[in-house]
Hints:
seven-stranded mixed beta sheet; two-stranded antiparallel sheet; alpha/beta
Amino acid sequence: xLSTGALRAHLLAARLAGPVATSRETSLRSYRLFAAGDxxxxxxxxxxxxxxxxxxxxxxxxxxxxxxxxxxVVGPDVIDPERxxxxxxxxxxxxxxxxxxxxxxxxxxxxxxxLLGFYVALADAMSAAGCPVLTPAQGRRIDITTRFGVRTCxxxxxxxxxxxxxxxxxxxxxxTGAHTHSPLPVRVALAAAAExxxxxxxxxxxxxxxxxxxxQLGIEAIGLADTDDPALFVxxxxxxxxxxxxxxxxxxxxxxxxxxxxxxxxxxLSR
Length: 271
């Protein structure tokens, strides 16, 4: 069993928390764009009024531990590891709730190159606990706006975890998914589940648009978020996202394995 102290040390050593690779400039730019209503950073969330840049900076200081000083504009951003640990505990509590109920769960990621393994291990464990892990709209084509224009991607699942693949990507590969912030994949998946009159998820687990898109539609959603992802923390503050765990979402995939162990220990030892 991984102790809290050991995980805290790992978070700092791997730069999942503490000074992280995400720059202060990148984070502040995201707050400006969110305040302006830019869909690239609202991620499918329709926020309430009143989220100016100063409000977002204050919120992110509270939720993540970034500096609240608007004059701090350069250098690496910072995540408080205590907030990450508290977020992982809350994240595990919601998974435990779903496992107890054997609730249908939908997993999806916009960061397949980094976070696929984290979600796959959770999906395997939840399936073993009796939760239906849903895979609606397998292979469905989705037009997603990117900085290179509109790209027609396909929705695919790897061991129960959804991602999108760009045209020409090898089918069935574990590491060929595309990075995306779009909420369209979760909307398509949920619409397909409703059309098929099958199970609808009681919990969506993921990041980016998967969490915000589901939360906006009233489905409980939990996930990971970096300092330049204010939408998840706004959604949490407004009650549409259940848990947003502050953590750098772009480190090597192997560095997330201790987080998986910690979460699963909490989920299944608490039952």
